[in-house]
Model the fold of this input.
Amino acid sequence: MSRGLVSRVGGWSSSGAVAAALVVLLVVPAPAMAATIVVGGGCTLADAITAANTDSAAGGCTAGSGADVIQLTGDVTLTTVDHFDEGDNGLPAVTSEIVVEGNGFTVARMAGAPDFRPFFIDTTGDLTLENVTVSGGFHQSWNGGGIFNDGTLLLHNSTVSGNLGRDGGGVLNRGALTIDSSTLSGNTADTYYGGGGGLSDEGEALVVNSTISNNIVLGGKAGGGGIFGDSDTATTLVNSTVAHNSGEGVFAIQDVILTNSIVAGHGTNCDEFPGGGTIVDNGNNFDDDGTCGAGVGVLTGLDPNLLDNGGPTQTHALLDGSSAIDGAGACGLATDQRGVARDAACDSGAFEFGGAGGPIVTLAISGSCPGPVTLTVTTTDPFEDVVLFAGRSAGSSTVTGGGCAGTELGLDGARIFMTVTTNGAGVRNLGATLADRWCGKFLQGLDRNCVTSNLLQIPQ
Done:
C-alpha cells in the first residue's frame, strides 16, 4: 500500500471526529503472549529485535512477549556491524518468532559502510518479513548478501534487491524458506563455484507467486543467475517467474521442481549438474529455449521489463496473446503476485493477465448499533494491508494521494479511520461498542491494489 494514501482522502483532514473516534473504538488487542514493538522515537530496529528475542526492554524499545510484531514507521539505514555469524551482520540474529511489518519501508546497508548483510536468522529463529525491502547488503567473502536463513523465513509482499554475496546474492537458505508474492531482483552472487544471484537454496525453499529477475552470477564455474538449487529435499517453484537473470535461470545441483512457472530470457533457462540434480517438470511450465524439459510449453508474450504493474512488488507482465495465459488451469491460488484475482483457468507464472477482477476485500459486520459489534475484514490474500474508510452515507469520494490517487469510493464524505493487516488466513476481526451516532454510517475498504471492497452500512 502506498504510504501517501493513508494521509488524506477527498480533502478531509484526519483530525475529524469520525476518524479519531473509530480508531479508538475499533482497536484490536494484540494476541495473547505477544507484543507489538514500534520502531521510531528512540527505538531502533536493532533494539526492537533484541527486545523481541529476549522478552525484555532494549534501548528505547518496549519488551517483547512471546511471538512479537515489529512495525516500521520509516526507512532503516544500517551503518555498523552488529555481530559475526556466518559473516558480519548489520542487525542482531533473529532467535525467536518475529513478524516485521514493513509498511512499504526499506531496511538497507548504507553505501560505504563496512561489509555486512542486513538479516541473519538463527536455527531457533522464525522471521516473517511483510511488505519490506531489503537492500544494499555487501558480503563478498560470505554467503547471503541480503539475508542468511538458518531457521525459518517467510518473505511476503517483499523485495530483496541490490545485494551482493558469495553464494546467494539476495538470499542464502539453509533452513525452511517460503517466498510468497515477493521479488528478488538486481542481486549478485560473486563466487567461483556455487551461485544463485537471487537465491541459493541449501535447505527447503518454496517459491510461490513470486518473481526472480535481473540477478547476476559471477565466477568461472558459478551457475544459476536466478536460482541455485542445492537442497537435499528439492527447491520448489509454483506459479513463479524466473526471467532475465545472467547465466542460467535455474541451476540444479539437487532437484528443482517447477509447477505452473515461467523460466525465460536467459542464455540457458534450465541446467543440471552432471550426475546431480534434475529439473522436474511438474506441469504447465513455459520456457523459450526448450531446456526446462521436453514437455514444457514454448513461451511467447512476456514483457522483458520488470515494472510496477500494481501491488507492492515489481513483476513481468504477460502480454496480450501470451502462450502462458490460461496455461496453468485450476491452480488453486486465489490471486497472483500483485493480489489481482486469478481466473478460473490460471495463467502460468506470477502474473495473471486481465484477472477475474472484482473486490478481493470483503467487509461484514455482526451485532447491532448502538451496542457491541464485530467488523470482519476478509481478503483473498493473507497478510493483506487494507485501508478502511468511513462515510456519512453512500455516494462518491475520490482518493487524492498516493499510489491509488483517482480511485473512486462509494462513500459520501469519506475519511480514513485506520489501516489493518489481515492474518495468515486473510481475516481480521475488529471489536467495538458503538454509540448512536455511528448507526447507519457506511464503511468501505481499499486494498494495496487499489481495489475497493463492498459498501457496508452499520446496522441500526
Summary: The domain at 361-457 is CATH 2.20.130 (S-adenosyl-L-methionine-dependent methyltransferases). The two ends are 32 Å apart (CA to CA). The chain is about 5% helix and 35% strand.
